[in-house]
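Dear support,

I submitted the protein below through the web form. The confirmation email said the job was done, but the results page showed an empty box. After a refresh the structure appeared. I'm attaching both so you can tell me whether what I see now is the final result or a partial one.
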Amino acid sequence: MQQPLLLLMLSGIATSNGAAPTIESDSTSVVITADDLSVVTPDKTWSFVAMATSAADLAKATQDTLDGMPGMDDFTKVVDDKVETVNVEIGAIADDLTKLSSNTAEFEGMFEAMSAKQEKDAATIADLLKANKLLTDGLTALQKEFKELAEATPSFTPAQCDALVEPDNGAVEYVGEHGDKVPVSVTVTFTCSDGFFPIKNDTEATCQHDGDAAKWSAPGKHPGCMACSVDCAMCADASVCDRCAANALLVDGKCVDTPGLTKETAASSCLEILKANPDAKSIGAGYWIKVPRMESRKMFCFMADWDSEYGGGWTMVGRGVGGNPDCWLQAGEEGCNAWSMWDTRKSFMYKDNTINGIPHTAIWYQGYGTIKASFYYESNSETGEGCQYGHATAASNACNCPHDTPDFEGDCPQGMLYEGHNGVGHWSEQENGEDVDGFLHSSIARGPWYMRNQDCEGRGCGGRNNCVGRSVGCNVGLYIR
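What the results page shows now:
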């Protein structure tokens, strides 16, 4: 009965070359055949070749062999330890498998949720695509209907007026945007160039509705332009001028051709201008006066509106402003131009050759400030007779012979020569040997003008009988005519 156990034990033995032994048996014997049968123990390798003819011999040989192997307990302990370690590892693996199973369940739940959401999203997208297709189809159908409607509806153009034609010497000024066609409500104004006026008083029109069309209100077109009177630059009609051309003056709505208004029409004197146009005014812009052997220049002309007593036509050639005499002393020098001095209210004086080059027969010396007086000196610039003005020349003879009026009637109270008192004046000697009257342009030591009027009666001297050019208010003017 021991044969099966022995066979079981030997079946676990391997040869050293890895080939299993061959076991043959019958009812009475077991034969184990192997090239090299080895039993390995922890501390030693046992090899044997056994040939047994009976079970009892094999059992005995086996038992002997086993009994002769040392360390079987140690071997058993090692195997037990290995088994225990393997069991621990198997337990850890089992735990991991449990956790993995739990995680797998969680992942499966998440996956199922995601799958459900994807299915829901897919359904939503499908609905959106379906709605988009419905909208696209509807828009396409609507566009088709609009196109058919537009093709069936006649085009509409708002009513407009034709742009108006501008006449010669006239213009059409639009208030509002326009092109070749003018929208309703746009207004136009009809104007004429300088020197022309509208033939009719209707100077405005508006584009307005006329049923389904549009037309201009009356007059419906530019009325045309007609020339103003000669020398008129702007007028409302042919009879009344509003502004004259540069060579004419406006007098009671009419233009009067007047010399001296331009450099090209410069006059020989202010008196010539007044003779050409008795209505010529004293204008701040001045008049152009020709000076022999010199370029024409602007001068101040005082006409009848300023000197009503003696008829006007005076040319101002010098002015002394009390307290500011510099350019009076520097007659005609650079920076003392008479024209520039006028606006600044400063003194000025033209040079002698300019004064004597302008035709004149009278010199007027006026005090219009502290001393108010007027004296006239007879002078003929063309013949050289009478007073020939000299700004730095001592007043003598006719230049020292004043008259109360420019008609020079009566005898001249010939005064004495007073050396160093220049220009025009009046010095006389009374019985007591005293000089009494003096009207001077330049006084001693090249000072400014000096005025003295001993006899104030009728002269408006304001209670004073003298003043000097360096005193404020001692103003004088010098004119020729």
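Response: this is the final, complete result; the empty box was a page-load delay. The radius of gyration is 70 Å.
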